[in-house]
Design a protein that fits this description.
By secondary structure, the protein is α+β, with helices and mostly antiparallel strands. The chain is built from 4 helices and 2 strands.
Length: 122
């Protein structure tokens, strides 16, 4: 856990240093305030060169004056479903494959590929 005071979980925190030390294959993002904190952190994680996966059913918010929460969540899941994050060589590391390869099963290595969470879809 990293305590934060701003929308961006990387701003003014030790998150980037912690992730560098851990060197994870991917960063799973979830949380409160889909349209503010979660979205900002997703974009920042990509800018910090992380392979980002948004857990589609693990972020939320209250209704907004102009849009209900379900619509905001559905919209952001759609936006994040097309994330292009850190490029991966699927032939070298089959555990990490970009979202297009996961959706199509076309990874160019001549074998079956598992389907899993990618870019917010599950």
């Amino acid at each position: 856990m990293v305590d934060k005071t701003l929308n961006d979980a990387f701003a003014g925190t030790s998150l980037q240093q912690t992730l560098k030390q851990l060197a994870p294959d991917r960063v799973l993002v979830c949380g409160w305030a889909t349209d503010f904190c979660v979205d900002t952190t997703v974009r920042s994680a990509i800018s910090h060169d992380h392979h980002v996966v948004v857990v589609a059913d693990a972020h939320t918010l209250n209704n907004r004056p102009h849009l209900d929460a379900v619509s905001v969540i559905r919209h952001h899941n759609w936006v994040w479903s097309g994330l292009i994050t850190k490029p991966v060589d699927p032939c070298r590391d089959r555990r990490r494959v970009d979202w297009r390869a996961r959706l199509t099963g076309q990874h160019g290595c001549g074998g079956a590929m598992d389907r899993g969470i990618a870019g917010g879809q599950h």
